[in-house]
Every structure is written in C-alpha cells, then in structure tokens.
Q: What sequence folds into this?
C-alpha cells in the first residue's frame, strides 16, 4: 500500500483479475509456497525463518527474568517488536518503527496473546517479583507482500522451538516453553469485490483494503485487523472469515502440528 | 484481555448488566458540536464514562512539505490520551497503542473524505481523550466525524463507530470498563450509514457464529449513534439557518 507501481503493471493486474486470474497464476484463495526453517539462530532461545513465496521473515525469541505487570503478578510477559529494516524493501527507512511496523508488531502480538498460545502462568518465578519475559522480535528480510502472515507464522513457529534458558540465570534446569495453541493469521485484500488471499507486493499496492483474521486451533477467531483506506461489506467480511478459517487449518496442520 | 477467574466477577444481575443496561443497549451519549473557537471544526462527545474532544484543522498547507500529495489531500489523525484520563497515570505522549489507533482511526474516516478536492493540502484531525472508560477509539472516531462535518470538509458519507464485546459467554453492545477488562472479546467497528465497514478490529475469542452476532450488534449500535450525531449537527446548524430543517426524532 505504500510502494509505487507503474500504471501499466496496475492495468495488467486489474485486467487479469477481471478474467479471474492472478499474475503468478494462483487461485484467489491460494497461498504462495510456505517454508519454515526452525532454530536457525543458535544464540536465540527460539527462532524461525519463514518464506512465503519470496517474502522472508526471521523471528527470534529471547527470554530473560524480569518484573511482572502489577495487574498480573504471577504471569510471564510478552513483548513483541518488529523491525522493518531498509534491506527488505525500497520503501523501508532506517529509524524507529513507523506506524506500519508498530501495527505489524501489535497484530502479531495480538495473535499470540489472545489465543493464549503461551502458558504465561508457567512462566512465573516468584509471584509479584520475578517472571519470565518473552521478547518476540520480528525481522523482515524481504518484503514481497503479506509480511504480516509470514511474521505471525514465524512468531508461533519460533515459540514452538523455544527453550526457556533457566540455567543461564541460575533458575534451575532449562525447559521447553509451554505452548498451548497455534494461532494462524490469514490476510486477504479486497479489490473490485474480488477477495485475494496472501497478496503479493503488487496486489497489496493496488488494493486499498486488507483484512487479517487470526484463528485458533479450535476454529475460533482470536484477532482481527482491517487495514487500509477502503471499505468492506459485512458479507465480504464473513466470506473472508470463512475462507481464513479453512486456510489457517491447512497451514496449521501442514507446517506446525507434529 | 486479562484472564481472570470469571467466577470472581458477575457481569449480570437479574438479566441486566452492572450498570443496568440490556445486552444490546448503548451507554448514554451526549454530543456537542463546535466547542473550540480556534479549530475549523470540533466536537465534544461523552459515551458513558468516556469524555473525548476532537478538532479538525484544514484543509491547510502541509508541513513538512515532502508529505504533500499532488492529486489529493492527506489526512492525519492523532489519537492522544491525557495522562489523567486513566486510573494509573499514563506517561504523556504517543505510545505504540496510540500509533496503531491513530492509523486505524484515520483509515476509518479517510474512505468518506473527498480528498481529491484539495490536492497538496492536509486535513488534520486531533483527538484528545480526557477521560477513558472503554471504547475511546470509537468515541474518538464518532467525535472526529462530527468535527469533520463541522469544519465543512466535503464527505461522501458519515462515519459512526461502536464496539461489541463478549462477557460471560454473552455478546454485549458497547462494553464498559469492567466488561472490557475482564471480558472475553472486544470488537470495535466503524461504518457508513449504509453498512460499509471502514474499521474492524477484534481481540479475545469468538466462534464464527458469535462473530456474526457481534458484528450485527455493533452495526446496529453504530446506526443508533449515527442518528445522535445527525441530530447534534442538525441542532447546531438549524439554530444558524432558517429553521426549516426537519429534526428526525431518535428514541
């Protein structure tokens, strides 16, 4: 939505959509090829490199003991941050996160938090005093579209490989981070009443409405975010939710469930 | 959403909510138009315990210059919470939450603003939350939409915003603080009177069926709010113009 696209390319994509096609030959509800490599960063407590088509996102998890929030004294803390580093796109600039980066981090965070994927109570060390803090750091490496789904997938995949570094801090033996759910984010754009899932960067640029739906393993919705300056009809939203549930199930079963 | 022992708090008494509302009832709303002298348009809104003020400046020159768009006006939206607006003092200035809310609120209004009428200019919307009681983003959007009209910004349509939530497995309209903090889901929407949705967010847990119910309930709430916005505007401007404008009764 922020990058530049030539008029002729825009026309080409538009005319393809009228014919019911996409530039890379996919169906409207078809995802690009997904690959997840786990534990790619040995210095991190958990990590995953996700490739969604040509988009690449690296997520690293670091953990350290710290103070709990006063309103949840016996629960661990999740802090999610996203870096849209300038090597990933000509439109990304160095500096503190802009609103796109902040929104991305907050929607990834929403998926993990609201699905209750991490058993935060198991991360209490001394109630009210010391709990484990999980830092989920999303590093976008190559933005070829739909980095939000890739980042969400990376976050949960990385959490699934995370080992709590208790021995490093003299807090007993290391243990596997207890993960109870697998939230999956699925994003669609709306263009001329056509709903396209997993948009590539050109499709994101021509559409001005995007909806992300995050679903849990039992098929409930745990997070949503509409983004962009367009409008959606309720029927379109319901259709996106229906397809999103299906797609999320496929992705979850294929890539994340042992 | 804090995960509390749900038995600790009972959300309903004799079928009514803690503040005596039905599940599908809005909190009382008060809207005042044109409350700031310096702004081009302004609006003060109270939605339950929320007190929010919105101001619109523009269309005006864009600073810094490089933000200019040659074919249209840009829209800026700043959502800001006063440090004293919440129980625990909020550190002044923007945080990540307010950046996100500013973005989605701007995107909630931009679809109806005729930005192509004002190339190279900016329409600034400033929203200050003076007192917060769950639902500040929707209150802010409602006030901002009225302030845009008050500023005379050409718009295709009005925008009204409202949230639905889930508490104790029940879908409720316009959650208040307790229901938001200890509830199971929150779903704010913004829309035009003819049902085009311009803002949609959700957190918590909803089954697809509950989601349908919540969207429908929030849309109904937004329609009622539209009538209140409309009435507030008609009231202000019918005092200035010939009193031939028909005021549509609301509830």
A:
């Amino acid at each position: 939505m922020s990058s530049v696209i030539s008029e002729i390319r825009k026309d080409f994509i538009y005319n393809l959509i009228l014919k019911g096609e996409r530039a890379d030959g996919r169906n409207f509800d078809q995802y690009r090829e997904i690959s997840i490599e786990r534990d790619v960063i040995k210095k991190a407590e958990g990590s995953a490199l996700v490739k969604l088509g040509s988009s690449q996102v690296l997520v690293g998890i670091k953990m350290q003991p710290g103070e709990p929030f006063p309103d949840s004294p016996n629960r661990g803390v999740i802090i999610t941050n996203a870096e849209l580093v300038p090597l990933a796109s000509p439109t990304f600039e160095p500096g503190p996160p802009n609103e796109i980066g902040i929104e991305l981090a907050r929607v990834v965070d929403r998926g993990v938090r609201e699905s209750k994927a991490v058993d935060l109570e198991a991360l209490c060390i001394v109630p009210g005093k010391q709990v484990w803090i999980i830092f989920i750091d999303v590093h976008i490496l190559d933005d070829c579209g739909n980095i939000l789904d890739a980042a969400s997938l990376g976050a949960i995949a990385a959490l699934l490989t995370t080992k709590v570094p208790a021995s490093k801090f003299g807090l007993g033996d290391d243990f596997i981070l207890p993960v109870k759910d697998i939230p999956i984010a699925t994003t669609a754009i709306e263009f001329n009443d056509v709903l396209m899932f997993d948009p590539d960067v050109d499709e994101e640029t021509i559409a001005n409405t995007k909806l992300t739906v995050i679903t849990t393993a039992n098929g409930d919705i745990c997070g949503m975010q509409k983004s962009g300056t367009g409008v959606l009809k309720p029927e379109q939203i319901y259709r996106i939710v229906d397809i999103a549930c299906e797609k999320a199930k496929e992705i979850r079963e294929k890539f994340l469930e042992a | 959403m804090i995960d509390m022992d749900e038995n600790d708090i009972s959300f309903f008494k004799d079928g009514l909510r803690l503040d005596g509302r039905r599940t599908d009832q809005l909190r009382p709303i008060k809207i005042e138009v044109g409350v700031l002298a310096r702004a081009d348009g302004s609006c003060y809104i109270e939605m339950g315990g929320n007190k929010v003020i919105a101001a619109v400046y523009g269309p005006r020159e864009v600073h810094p210059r490089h933000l200019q768009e040659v074919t249209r006006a840009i829209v800026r939206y700043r959502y800001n919470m006063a440090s004293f607006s919440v129980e625990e003092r909020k550190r002044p200035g923007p945080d990540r939450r307010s950046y996100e809310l500013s973005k989605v609120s701007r995107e909630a209004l931009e679809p109806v603003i005729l930005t192509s009428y004002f190339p190279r200019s900016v329409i600034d919307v400033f929203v200050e939350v003076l007192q917060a009681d769950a639902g500040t983003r929707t209150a802010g959007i409602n006030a901002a939409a009225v302030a845009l009209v008050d500023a005379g910004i050409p718009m295709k349509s009005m925008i009204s915003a409202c949230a639905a939530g889930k508490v104790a497995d029940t879908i409720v309209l316009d959650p208040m603080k307790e229901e938001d903090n200890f509830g199971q889901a929150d779903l704010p929407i913004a829309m035009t009177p003819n049902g085009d949705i311009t803002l949609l967010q959700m957190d918590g847990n909803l089954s697809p069926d509950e989601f349908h119910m919540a969207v429908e309930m929030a849309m109904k709430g937004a329609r009622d709010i539209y009538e209140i916005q409309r009435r507030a505007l008609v009231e202000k401007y019918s005092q200035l113009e010939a009193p031939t404008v028909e005021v549509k009764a609301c509830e």
